[in-house]
Amino acid sequence: MTKKTAKKEAGWNLDNSYARLPKSLFTLVHLNPVPSPKLIILNEVLALDLGLGVEILKSKSGIEIFAGNKSPEGAKPLAQAYAGHQFGHFTMLGDGRAMLLGEQITPRGHKYDIQLKGSGRTPYSRGGDGRAALGPMLREYIISEAMNALGIPTTRSLAVVTTGELVYRDEKLPGAILTRVASSHIRVGTFQYAAWWCSLEELRHLADYTIQRHYPDIELGDNRYLTLLQEVVKRQASLIAKWMMVGFIHGVMNTDNMAISGETIDYGPCAFMDTYAPETVFSSIDTRGRYAYINQPPIAMWNLARFAETLLPLLHDNKEEAIKIAEKALSEFPELYRCNWLTGMRGKLGLFNAEEEDETLIEDLLKIMYKYQADYTNTFRSLTLDEPLDSEMFNSPEFTQWQEKWKARLIRQQETSEASKELMKRSNPSVIPRNHRVEEAIEAAVKCEDYSVMNRLLMVLSQPYDYTAEQIEYIRPPEPSDCKYKTYCGT
Ligand code: AMP
Ligand code: MG
Question: How many whole angstroms from 93 Cα to the centroid of ligand 1?
Answer without folding.
Answer: 8
